[in-house]
From TrEMBL:
Function per UniProt: Putative odorant or sperm cell receptor.
GO CC, alphabetical: plasma membrane
Encoding gene (name): LOC113898664
Location of the protein in the cell: Cell membrane
Transmembrane intervals: 26-48, 140-158, 197-225, 237-260, 272-292
Ranges for domain G-protein coupled receptors family 1 profile: 41-290
Listed Pfam families: 7tm_4
UniProt name for this protein: Olfactory receptor
Native source species: Bos indicus x Bos taurus
InterPro entries given in the database record: GPCR_Rhodpsn, GPCR_Rhodpsn_7TM, Olfact_rcpt
Membrane topology: Multi-pass membrane protein
Family: Belongs to the G-protein coupled receptor 1 family.
Lineage per the UniProt record: Eukaryota, Metazoa, Chordata, Craniata, Vertebrata
Length: 308
């Protein structure tokens, strides 16, 4: 393969938040606070679910794995942001880029399938409560969780593997705070059409399947809630479902807009605002959305606090 009189790029500079040096101290404080709250919230919820036997149910097993993946996503992204805010070179090698994208794609893909599993679990619990223990057996729960991790690993393997067909000989500056594949495609001196097509096919398939599962599950849940005679029970169920559905909508909406929208590779102006939602905001909010309105989690926390 010829280099076309360009030197091949093997290192990149992430310039996402470094265009405003006067704000670097403030940005460092904001992102460090987000990172700290995210890790404490998510890992704290994982520890609570592991130690409290009453939370060893399918819903909390899915939730524990979801918060674990959110922690992995935050660990893959935020430390590099903090480093780059005060680093002079802000360099990241191509292989570090691939590793960061792999961790990000692993976390996001696994989250998609776990959210779908959680929606199905809620559908069974609310719409078919008498059949819950039969339909949501321990075996099925393990299979769904394992399947989510398998899909979460296969998906990034495909895209990272396809990166090896590209060479990079354009500008080594990436206008982003993370190493995503879309900015890398813009720096390729080889036509990334196949890579773009695979992103559209595989990311689109994952999102369509899991979003369809979530929407159908919540539609059945809503129909069941509206049939409830108790206004108090109906209000509590709607409040809980609304907060969950808001989180899911932001997560899926940002991923759809990022990877499946037309001309997503060439439209870089929207990359950073959209990526902030699914890499920083959602991992920060999830442990609070899924626990603060949950009496079982709150009671488990109170029990632990009393025993300290």
């Amino acid at each position: 393969m010829t280099e076309d009189n360009h030197s091949l790029t093997t290192e990149f500079i992430l310039i996402g938040f470094t265009n405003h040096p006067e704000l670097k101290t403030l940005l460092f404080q904001v992102f460090f606070t987000i990172y700290l709250i995210t890790m404490v919230g998510n890992l704290g919820l994982v520890a609570l679910i592991v130690t409290e036997h009453r939370l060893h149910t399918p819903m909390y097993i899915f939730l524990g794995n979801l918060t674990l993946m959110d922690s992995c996503c935050s660990c893959a992204i935020t430390p590099k942001i903090l480093e780059n805010l005060f680093s002079k070179d802000r360099m990241i090698s191509l292989y570090e880029c691939m590793a960061q994208f792999y961790c990000l794609c692993l976390a996001e893909t696994t989250d998609c399938f776990l959210l779908a599993a959680m929606a199905y679990d809620r559908y069974v619990a609310i719409c078919k409560p008498l059949q819950y223990h039969t339909m949501m057996s321990k075996k099925l729960c393990i299979q769904m969780t394992t399947g989510a991790y398998i899909a979460g690993n296969i998906h990034p393997m495909i895209h990272v593997g396809l990166l090896f067909r590209l060479t990079f000989c354009k500008s080594h500056q990436i206008n982003h705070f993370l190493c995503d594949v879309l900015p890398l495609y813009r720096h390729s001196c080889v036509d990334p059409y196949i890579n773009e097509l695979m992103i559209f096919i595989f990311a689109g398939s994952v999102l369509v399947f899991t979003i369809t599962t979530v929407i159908i599950s919540y539609l059945f849940i809503l129909f069941t809630i509206f049939k409830m005679k108790s206004k108090e029970g109906k209000g509590k169920a709607l409040s809980t479902c609304a907060s969950h559905f808001l989180s899911v909508s932001i997560f899926y909406g940002s991923l759809l807009f990022m990877y499946v929208r037309p001309n997503s590779v060439n439209d870089e102006d929207k990359d950073i605002p959209v990526a902030i939602f699914y890499t920083l905001v959602i991992p920060l909010l999830n442990p609070f959305i899924y626990s603060l309105r949950n009496k079982e989690v709150i009671n488990a926390m109170k029990k632990i606090m009393k025993n300290l």
